[in-house]
TrEMBL record, chain A:
InterPro entries: MetI-like, MetI-like_sf, UgpAE/MalFG_permease
Keyword annotations from UniProtKB, A to Z: Cell membrane, Membrane, Transmembrane, Transmembrane helix, Transport
CDD domains noted in UniProt: TM_PBP2 (cd06261)
UniProt xrefs under PROSITE patterns: ABC_TM1
Membrane-related topology note: Multi-pass membrane protein
Name under which the protein is recorded: Sugar ABC transporter permease
GO terms classed as biological process: transmembrane transport
Residue ranges constituting the ABC transmembrane type-1 domain according to the UniProt record: 111-325
Record localization: Cell membrane
Transmembrane segments: 40-62, 115-136, 148-168, 199-221, 258-276, 304-325
Region (Disordered): 1-31
Pfam family, one: BPD_transp_1
């Protein structure tokens, strides 16, 4: 939406800002029937979403939380062997799984790396996306061509790009090491050394994420009114001052949203890690999500309880982050 | 909160990408003459004081670009210094090369004989053997069909559901609206890990494992929340007077939505369709867990086969990658005209 973000908004507009063609009373005093007659079409329109989310997310979520309070694994859940139906025999263990996760080394070290991964990916992606958006927002020859080329990593399905990078990173025969060899430099174990592997997965994720940032921020830049820049120039602001005092505040509505979204997405970024390194070498690049997946589908016996426990912890962490993020924004005067 | 744009016409006009400047005008620029400087780096080519329009030969308004609303568009008209121009283009060229190269390299590899797959030559004995081998000896076409079916269904259903939801939260005030908006945002945070086992069990219970329908339902839960947010942003840019005129003419809310508002929201629908398609086309975790057996795999699952089972066959794998990327890129091209507008429309909260 082309918002006029000319000046930083002073004060907040909390509460409901919904404007309907017939702004009905928020809570009808005439009881349910009147509510239904007023809102039935709105409810009918959102019904499909509510149904899908309820069935595919609501129930699994409850069940996931339940599993995390048990000792369920592959050997004690209800299953069929041939024609025999074996009933579930797992037991309720309370918060044991959480205690084990939060006091054990594995969860905390994985969490540490996940935070490093998220912060570095989002920060670099945002900086690069903003830089490129600023360049593309000028009148420059071949602008559309540049934009098309720069968006390409987003247009190609992620798993294909990841395979492309695997190909480039390959230690014996990958192009990167061949180029280094051409320069007389020893081969780098891009994906086989814990530190290099961390660097490599971050690089790939940044490569994948920049186009989205760039496009979103470019949209934001194009909705900024030019008059402000003229006025600033009249007042003698140089380019850097204009950027800091007009562009950045003007982009706030867009940038706060994309940063929140991309933080969440990066935190839960499954395919890059899963396909590039499988969490290896060892467990060096395993983030919380891939590790939880591994508990469920890659080890034997499959450990459903631990996987669900990690999943619930991930969710709690992200909820806390979103709440905190909102609070910070509120305090800075954005109405969220 | 995004305030409604008092000039919706501009918002719609912005959906049309600005044309690049005409050839004769390439040196004339409306931009500030130096790229956004990075802190700690001296600025090449600081601008001279803006020349007065009367003495500036380049002061003519550029034609063709409609209204310049760009951040740097303004009254500042002077030539960018050659040095700044070179720096600007150099930066963009380097970035473009980095963006394109991995994909390009896979394309070039797919055209080499498998024996030379890892050579560093750009082209060598160009051949289509990898493609013919892939189509003949592997179940690639089956996987491709599965992916088309799943992505197509996800797109159709996703656009429908996201559009109705987005419209409802954009236009009506109803009990449960705030909760719904937050739910949509929170579902973005759900890790695959917490849901995948229960969804796996549900699908097993319903007999939907190894069934495209199961994956489609799952993908809807991923794509729809974000798309509904985006559609809401789009609908917010469409003036309410249109709805009101529909009501005045006796249309039901549904009629107004279908006949008046949806046609105006076409760019939004394109972006939503694109997002749903890409989500379904490229999803790995659920596809790997729910689909087993060669005949049920999607492309994301199938491509992994080339690595694990046969020890990285780069030749067929690069050919498969190209064939997977092409449809996605086509869908992307179709939607990309609207992407910039779409992303910014949806990114603003309201």
């Amino acid at each position: 939406m082309a918002v006029q973000t000319g000046r930083p908004v002073a004060g907040t507009r909390g509460g409901k800002t919904a404007r309907g063609p017939r702004p009905g009373p928020g809570t009808p005093s005439g009881g349910l029937r009147r509510a239904v007659s007023t809102h039935w079409y709105a409810w009918a329109m959102v019904a499909p979403v509510v149904a899908v989310i309820g069935v595919i997310i609501g129930y699994p979520l409850v069940r996931g939380v339940h599993l995390s309070l048990t000792d369920a694994d592959e050997r004690n859940v209800a299953r069929h062997i041939g024609v025999n139906n074996l009933p579930a025999t797992y037991e309720f263990v309370g918060l044991d799984n959480y205690r084990a996760a939060l006091t054990g080394d594995q969860f905390l070290s994985t969490l540490g790396w996940t935070l490093v991964w998220t912060v570095s990916c989002v920060a670099v992606t945002f900086a690069l996306g903003l830089g490129l958006a600023t360049l593309l927002n000028r009148r420059i020859a071949g602008r559309s061509l540049y934009r098309m080329l720069l968006i390409l990593p987003w247009a190609v399905p992620g798993f294909v790009s990841v395979f492309a990078w695997r190909f480039l990173y390959n230690e014996d025969r990958g192009l990167l090491n061949k180029l280094l060899a051409g320069g007389g430099i020893d081969a780098v174990p891009w994906l086989n050394d814990p530190t290099w592997a961390k660097f490599s997965v971050i690089a790939v994720n940044i490569w994948l994420g920049v186009p989205f940032m760039m496009v979103a921020l470019l949209g934001g830049l194009q909705s900024l009114p030019g008059e402000l820049y003229e006025a600033a120039e009249m007042d003698g602001a140089d380019a850097w001052q204009r950027f800091v005092h007009i562009t950045l505040p003007g982009l706030r509505p867009v940038s706060t949203t994309v940063i929140l979204l991309s933080t969440i997405w990066t935190f839960n970024m499954f395919p890059v890690i899963f396909l590039l390194t499988r969490g290896g070498p060892g467990e060096a690049t395993q983030i919380l999500v891939t590790q939880a997946y591994k508990f469920s589908f890659e080890i034997s016996p499959r450990d459903y309880a631990q996987s669900s426990t990690w999943g619930v912890l991930i969710l709690v962490l992200l909820m806390l982050f979103a709440a905190l993020y909102r609070r910070v924004l509120r305090n800075q005067g954005d109405s969220w | 909160m995004g305030r409604a744009d008092p000039r919706p016409a501009d918002a719609l006009r912005r959906a049309v990408p600005a044309r690049p400047p005409e050839p004769g005008r390439q040196l004339v620029t409306l931009a500030a003459p130096n790229p956004a400087p990075k802190p700690g780096r001296p600025n090449p080519g600081r601008p001279n004081p803006a020349p007065t329009p009367a003495t500036d030969p380049a002061a003519a308004t550029p034609s063709g670009a409609g209204r310049i609303t760009s951040a740097t568009g303004g009254g500042h008209r002077n030539r960018r210094s050659p040095l700044a121009s070179v720096a600007l283009h150099a930066t963009l060229v380097v970035a473009s090369v980095i963006a394109v190269f991995p994909v390009l390299w896979v394309l070039l590899t797919s055209l080499k004989p498998a024996a030379h797959a890892t050579t560093t030559d750009f082209l060598r004995d160009t051949t289509l053997d990898n493609y013919t081998g892939l189509l003949r000896d592997t179940p690639f076409l089956t996987w491709f069909g599965n992916s088309v079916l799943i992505a197509g269904l996800t797109t159709v259903l996703g656009v429908f559901v996201a559009a109705t939801t987005g419209y409802a939260v954009s236009r009506f005030r109803f009990p449960g609206k705030r909760g719904l908006m937050w739910t949509l945002l929170v579902t973005q945070m759900f890790p695959v890990a917490v849901l995948i086992v229960p969804i796996y069990n549900i699908m097993a219970g319903l007999g939907l494992l190894n069934d495209p329908v199961g994956l489609v339902l799952t993908y809807l839960t991923i794509a729809v929340p974000f798309c509904a947010w985006m559609m809401k942003g789009f609908f917010d840019t469409i003036p309410r007077e249109i709805d009101e005129s529909g009501m005045v003419d006796g249309l039901t809310p549904f009629g107004t939505f279908r006949r008046l508002v949806l046609p105006l929201a076409r760019p939004g629908l394109a972006v939503t369709a694109f997002y749903c398609f890409i989500t379904a086309w490229g999803e790995v975790a659920y596809a790997s867990a729910f689909m087993v057996g060669d005949e049920n795999l999607t492309l994301a699952g199938g491509l992994q086969k080339f690595v694990n089972q046969y020890g990285a066959q780069w030749g067929p794998m690069s050919a498969a990658s190209v064939l997977i990327a092409v449809p996605a890129a086509l869908v992307f091209l179709f939607a990309q005209r609207h992407l910039v507008t779409g992303m910014s429309a949806g990114a603003v909260k309201g």
